[in-house]
Amino acid sequence: MLAGWDALAAPVTRAATVVHPSTASLRAVDWRKPAQWSYGIHGTPVSRTLGARLAALEGGDHALLQPSGLAAIVNISLGLLQQGDDVLIPDNVYGPSREHGDWLRKFGISARYYDPLMGADIARLIQPNTRLIWIEAPGSVTMEVPDVRAITSAARAHGVHTALDNTWSAGVAFKPFDHGCDISMQALTKYPSGGSDVLMGVTITRDYDLHLKLKRARMMLGFNVSADDCALVLRNLPSTALRYAAHGRSALAIAHWLKMRSEIEKVLHPALPDCGGHAHWKRDFSGSGGLFSVVFNAAFTQAQTDAFIEGLTLFKIGFSWGGAHSLVAPYELSAERNTWPHRGALVRFFIGLEEENDLRADLEHSMARHLTA
User: Fold this and answer.
1) In the chain, which residues fall in CATH 3.40.640.10?
2) Nearby residues of 218 by Cβ (< 8 Å), 6 or more positions away
3) How many CB atoms sit inside 10 A of residue 242's CB?
4) pTM score, two decimals?
5) What is 23-238's CATH number?
6) Modified residue N6-(pyridoxal phosphate)lysine is at which positions (predicted)?
7) Which residues touch 365 (CB under 8 Å, ≥6 apart)?
8) Chunked mean pLDDT (size 10), the chain, 373 residues
9) Can you give the C-alpha Rg of the chain in angstroms?
């Protein structure tokens, strides 16, 4: 730092090569020691600042930044699993996470899918070779909220690590380590970035030995993040809780409105009493953010629901979420769930920061045009 210099924004420190004052200093470098600077891939001041703030947000002690949310998932799996091991994955998991579970089988790792609402009954699925249980709270499309405490308690009794995808809560509405999780990961692409322009993920732990396992895997995978992207996330991180609450207020109001519409068979929002695992959400979460799904009346064809989506003006069609703009995306669950009871089309909404009344008018107008019996 320059003498006398101080600012609210963290300086952007770009570096691949880190210069050492002596040969002895260079030889003493040990990637396991957090106080040392060794090489850009292991961190620079700006990436460590971001990691420390994210760990504090979630109640953890150690953070590792990744180039995407999926990279964080891969880092956890390849850091903890080896040939002959077994991993349990919830049936309502994020689609690429499910594909990743299938992909692990080529390395001799078995991946099995469990009912996300089975709670403590997961104990009967744990085998001697089970090493990891994934939890997603809630499921990213169908929104069931698991009993995280019951799952982590069963896992600990059998010496099995648990990893939670905490992206939906942004680390704001759910504190994973208070509920027994060993690892929390987030796609920082979503709320922490807030601008729909950064791809990044993070893994957070309390246990230092577990952190080192993940850090070694990240090193072997060659994962790294841009200093400029770290600065972008740091810029938006202080407003995350405020934005999350604003998204949540509008989303819940629109979810209640959609629940009264004849075009909709079911609204899948954790804060609604008829959503799977609502009692767990009410007990464990402090908010709900902007993401939820709906199931349309089965009388409507796919062509009709597609026309409804394409007829929206304020809602843009696209994946990801967490930014200022509202998004909509259709999902075909036949390939993504072992069981799914509904026949109507499932559509996921992300409610952005536009005026709630304008968004509701946009939905109503497209329904009137395209969803007629």
Assistant:
1) 23-238
2) 64, 66, 75, 79
3) 10
4) 0.94
5) 3.40.640.10
6) 190
7) 311, 313
8) 75 86 88 80 91 97 97 97 98 89 93 97 98 96 97 98 98 98 98 96 98 96 95 97 98 98 97 98 98 96 96 96 97 73 89 98 97 81
9) 22
Strands across the sheet with 291-296, in order? 264-268, 291-296, 346-350, 327-331, 316-317
**Token pair in block for residue 156:** 């600990």
Asked if the 239-370 domain carries CATH number 3.50.50.60, the reply is no
Question: What is the number of helices (H) and of strands (E) in the chain?
Answer: 11, 12
Q: Which two tokens stand for residue 222?
A: 């060659």
Residue 2: HSE in the Cβ half-sphere, 13 Å Cα cutoff:
5
Say if residues 65 and 227 touch (Cβ distance below 8 Å).
no
Nearest to 75 by CA among 209, 240, 220: 220
Identify residue 177 by its one-letter amino acid code. Answer: F
Asked whether the beta carbons of 44 and 228 are under 8 A apart, the reply is no
Residues 171 and 372: their CA atoms lie apart, in Å, by 41
Beta strand pairing call for 161-165 and 130-136: parallel
Q: Which residue has the tokens 């085998």?
A: 127
**For 211-326, where are the E strands, in sequence order?**
264-268, 291-296, 316-317
Q: Are 254 and 363 in contact (CB under 8 A)?
A: yes
Sign of CA dihedral 119, 125, 126, 132: negative
Structural element, H or E, at residue 168: none
Contact in structure between 69 and 167 (CB atoms under 8 Å): yes
- For residue 226, which of 87, 47, 34, 7 has the smallest C-alpha distance? 47
- Length of the chain, please? 373
CATH 3.90.1150.10, the chain: domain bounds: 239-370
Cis peptide upstream of residue 45 (ω within 30 degrees of 0): no
CA–CA distance, 263 with 344 (Å, rounded to integer): 10
